[in-house]
Amino acid sequence: MSPSIESPMPVIHHEVDLCVVGGGMAGVCAALAAARHGARVAIIQDRPVFGGNASSECRMHICGADRHNQIPNMRETGILEELRLENLRRNSGRSFSIWDTILHEKVAFHPSITPLLNCSCLSAEVEGARIRSVTGWQLTTGMFHVVRAKVFADCSGDAVLAPLTGAEWRMGREARTEYGESIAPEVADERTMGMTCLFQARDMGSPQPFEPPVWAEVFDTCDELPYGRSGHGWWRMGYWWVELGGEAHSIYDTEHVRDELLAIVYGVWDHIKNRCPAGGAENWALEWVQFLPGKRESRRYIGDHVLCQGDVEAGGPFPDSVAYGGWSMDDHHPAGFRAVEIGAPATVFHSAPSPYGIPYRSLYSRNIENLLFAGRCASCSHAAMSSTRVMGTASSMGQAIGTAAAMAIERGWVPRQVGEAMGELQQRLLADDAYIPLVKRVLPLLTLSATLRASQGDPEPIRDGVTRPVGEDSHGWAYGMGDWVEMVFGAPRQIREVQLVLDSDLSANIAMSYHRGDEQLTAPPATLPRSFRIEALQDGAWRTLRSEIDNHQRLVRYALADTVEGLRYYLEGFWGTPGRSLLYEFSAR
Ligand SMILES: Cc1cc2nc3c(=O)[nH]c(=O)nc-3n(C[C@H](O)[C@H](O)[C@H](O)COP(=O)(O)OP(=O)(O)OC[C@H]3O[C@@H](n4cnc5c(N)ncnc54)[C@H](O)[C@@H]3O)c2cc1C
């Protein structure tokens, strides 16, 4: 289908710099990063909400390199942290609809983003090795949308632009010898990880009978379930092991796999309510069942580099690392729920270091010049993808490709050429509070050359270019109520921007998970400064430039147009009573 499409239905044409296809966490972060760096963006998302598997339609909590807070200080910062802190502030009840709303307002209300929701991308126009436009069908309006762009980013999970454009891709598991992967099968196959339908249940406070549909499977004994009794003692939020489709086609067979999954979901709930000898669920009722199966794996693109098991195990390190992962290689058995029948575990966790770097070369197509990608369709082997697929990692990749796309557009480059300006891409990401293992932020000269003074302690770590604790080094200045730190420039200087990186407690659990009980935060972290002042030294006297009374973000940036001899950050209050809080950056340019 081309932009000159002839249809009795209306056809709307859009001309933008970047078109993102797929609005899961990877796509959301890509669109926001590109728009914030000046690109005009369209995002085509085939659902009514953004967030993909993290949205209210699927309700998976975002995991990443901190592995449920087991790896201290490894949480993904940058755009994902901003979204999650916004969520903590506004969503103490952990409602997925409020989370949807936060994603919606960030993306759809951005002045440089054209959101095309309920719009399914179904064709592409390609000239030589370049995509010229893509077309989507919008269910709610009955219209076609043709989006012409300079650069395209596929964040659809299923890599829909691969078959539509001829970009190289593969699906299934590589043979062990292909990349020398010890956890790969001996012979390559087309099997993948499966998809899952979750459920949510609520304690109603009084007995709740349950009658299963006649088509539900029947599980009379706990032994028929993958993890037996231990796997269903916690029934607030369904089970990841209700998984099928890895032995079928994880795209084309989705509709009938969903029906099989629903039969299992209702069978498992019937078992819990009516058949499990341990009981305990008398007062519980189902309140939600996932009708849109959550997918784990399907097509994966081939980029200039295919990230494999060895890369993950070596921790990268790549000269062109732009994102990072840290989840273990969580390789689900293709038989999923049925693996119990052959005595196999539903998943095997192969160890992986956290963090490991993800190279830029795994995020653009080897043969289609203007195509980037992020999320579970990135250029990884099956083994590496069993780790990179989690949504914290997908978000980190998304921010990287959005920033790279904006750079490519500024310069009239194709994405591969951005590799020649890797230092700049990495520095832009770090300035926006993304984390890249082993790469330090280079602070503005004005900050580095200033005289630093503080009310107590040594404030030097606030300009060491690392904005989180790594190993034994806190990389922050420990401070408390009433403390201040100042930069003095020695002469009047024109200031355009001041930036703070504050302590949002990167070891706290902010998962918004129904699986994980109440051990998680439901309000901004105690360590996070809520009120503070930025003061300026002018004509020998300090005066207040900005006064913040209700901050809830880690990255705080102010655009200024002032001539000052110095700047001071003065803390007035935290969200809680922290044992310790660290200031990671106070910079000006
Ligand atoms: C049951 C289950 C449990 C999981 N548990 C976790 C977990 O706890 N934590 C975690 O972080 N990860 C978890 N994962 C993995 C993770 O959810 C996925 O790997 C992840 O969603 C990848 O993010 P993404 O942005 O690449 O894709 P997605 O979240 O799949 O987002 C892609 C989006 O693109 C849209 N799209 C697809 N095709 C088109 C098209 N043609 N046109 C327009 N839009 C399109 C889709 O509707 C979707 O909204 C789990 C997965 C499953 C299935």
Question: Could you explain the architecture of this structure?
Answer:
With 589 residues, the chain is an alpha+beta fold. The chain is built from twelve helices and 28 strands. It has helices at residues 25-36, 79-90, 96-108, 161-165, 176-179, 254-275, 309-313, 382-388, 391-411, 415-418, 422-431, 445-448; strands at residues 11-15, 18-21, 41-44, 113-116, 119-127, 130-138, 143-148, 151-154, 169-170, 195-196, 199-203, 243-244, 284-289, 294-295, 300-301, 321-325, 329-332, 347-350, 356-359, 371-373, 451-454, 477-479, 484-501, 529-538, 541-548, 555-574, 581-583, 585-588. Strands 21, 23, 24, 25, 26 and 28 form a six-stranded antiparallel β-sheet that branches. Strands 4-3-2-8-20 form a five-stranded parallel β-sheet, covered by helices on one side. Strand 24 (529-538) and strand 25 form a beta hairpin. Helix 2 (79-90) packs across helix 3 (96-108). The two termini are 48 Å apart. 51% of the residues are buried. The model has no long low-confidence stretch (mean pLDDT 95). The structure holds flavin-adenine dinucleotide (FAD). Flavin-adenine dinucleotide binds at residues 21-27, 44-47, 52-53, 60-63, 120-121, 155-158, 160, 195-196, 240, 294-296, 375-376, 389-392, 394.
